[in-house]
């Protein structure tokens, strides 16, 4: 009985010590490997899009925080206080919280959000009633990104 109790206590001690956070190495890939030939910085994507609502591109930028690990939901810094809300196309990707603050290269589809104040009543962020044409949505969240692949750069 003492031997069984000893093995159980050793198993618990080993399993708790094995849960240390391992730093994410440079070059770690989540999802598909991104195309690094035509990488654009995240602060230039909105100007590059112009009037287009969707483009396929590769971006380089700093991850601000991971909002949801399962599905790979995170926020990327787009410069001038703007944020690019990003998530993986494949929900089976689990993105660790330690990636916050790291520079990454992401490949996928950038998309501008529709704002109901632009007389697009059935699209995007809508407000009903008297406030319909007076409410401005958050100007910091204009671009979303559906990620196919992520590469940890720095």
Describe the structure in your own words.
A hairpin with a 4-residue loop joins strand 3 and strand 4. With 154 residues, this protein is of the alpha+beta class. It is built from two helices and seven strands. It has a five-stranded mixed beta barrel with strand order 3-4-5-7-6. The chain is elongated, with a radius of gyration of 21 Å. Helix content is 14%, strand content 34%. The protein starts with a helix and ends with a strand. It has one domain: Beta Barrel (OB fold (Dihydrolipoamide Acetyltransferase, E2P)).
Structural class: alpha+beta
The N- and C-terminal alpha carbons lie at a distance of 52 Å
Mean pLDDT over the full residue set: 76
The helix fraction, in percent, is 10-25%
| Portion in strands | 25-35%
Name of the top-level CATH class: Mainly Beta
Q: Which CATH architecture?
A: Beta Barrel
Write the element-wise H/E pattern from the N-terminal end onward: HEEHEEEEE
List its salient traits:
154 residues, alpha+beta, OB fold (Dihydrolipoamide Acetyltransferase, E2P), five-stranded mixed β-barrel, 2 helices, 34% strand, elongated
Show the helix and strand layout:
Layout: H1 2-17, E1 29-31, E2 39-41, H2 45-49, E3 54-68, E4 73-77, E5 83-88, E6 103-112, E7 143-152
Parallel strand pairs: 2-3, 5-7
Antiparallel strand pairs: 1-7, 3-4, 3-6, 4-5, 6-7
Summarize this, please?
By secondary structure, the protein is of the alpha+beta class. The protein has helices at 2-17, 45-49, and strands at residues 29-31, 39-41, 54-68, 73-77, 83-88, 103-112, 143-152.
């Amino acid at each position: 009985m003492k031997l069984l109790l000893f093995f159980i206590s050793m198993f618990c001690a080993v399993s708790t010590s094995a849960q240390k956070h391992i730093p994410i190495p440079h070059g770690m890939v989540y999802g598909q490997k991104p195309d690094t030939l035509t990488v654009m910085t995240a602060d230039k994507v909105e100007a590059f899009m112009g009037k287009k609502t969707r483009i396929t591109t590769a971006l380089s930028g700093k991850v601000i925080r991971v909002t949801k690990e399962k599905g790979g939901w995170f926020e990327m810094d787009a410069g001038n206080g703007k944020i690019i809300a990003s998530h993986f196309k494949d929900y089976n990707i689990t993105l660790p919280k330690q990636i916050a603050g790291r520079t990454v290269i992401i490949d996928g589809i950038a998309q501008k959000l529709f704002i109901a104040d632009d007389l697009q009543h059935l699209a995007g962020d809508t407000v009903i009633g008297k406030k319909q044409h007076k409410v401005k949505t958050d100007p910091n969240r204009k671009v979303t990104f559906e990620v196919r692949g992520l590469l940890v750069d720095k």
